Fold this sequence. Notes:
With about 250 residues, the chain is of the alpha+beta class. It has helices at about 10-15, 30-35, 40-60, 140-145, 150-170, 240-250, and strands at about 5-10, 70, 85, 90-95, 100-105, 110-115, 195, 200-205, 210-220, 235.
Amino acid sequence: MTTALTVAVTETERLLALPGADAAVLTAAERRRRAAARTERARADFLAARLLARLCVARRTGGRARDVVLEQRCPVCTGPHGRPRVKDGRCAVSFSYADGVVAASAADQPVGIDIERLSGPAARGGAPGHRGFGHFLTGGEIDRVRGSPAPRTALLRLWVRKEALVKLTARGLPGMAGVDLSHLPPHPARRDRPYRLGRHLLYDLPDVPADVVGAVAVTAPGPLAGPGPTAASGMQSLTLDDLIDTLASQGEEP
Length: 254
């Protein structure tokens, strides 16, 4: 049985310093969006996230990262943004970046990933209950965060869990206000014990920098019921050596 999903988290600077980690993998649409980014850091994160997503796909499918074509098209305005997809449909993909750290995931089923820094905008937004938080937190979740000894971390963990589900379901953040995650503990779950939420599995990302929290959600391939370990064989978390090996294989003939 294959793993439920493949994920990778790394610092942008470390990834882009690897041989073969360059903008050659980007499509013309991605190059235009990268060029329009306002800062060099934003341009670097843009490239690193999309490269990392391709590496996750290549690692999962046995192909080459340079052959993975990512597309984004908004269903409302048809602009080159929104939920990413692999052009040939070999697997589902998602990515996220937060001020110098990037994360990506690939799976056979729909997937969503999100990371945030503890010093980032989501954490600086204020205490739960302030204007804006009611759009994505339930009353039970607000109470859970307020009662936490580390409310900022608890808030951010809720945020990334919700955002991972948003990316998975493509429902939009306001639509997640009715999904109550207050029953989930504020500390990270073990990678082999994801939370079951109906048809979805929710993992907390284990291999992240100390000031980063993250989560990834994936649609399970079969029926799920009740607590306990998933029927899938878990999450494959790629190391820097894995990424180096996958990049090195780009020049090989198929």
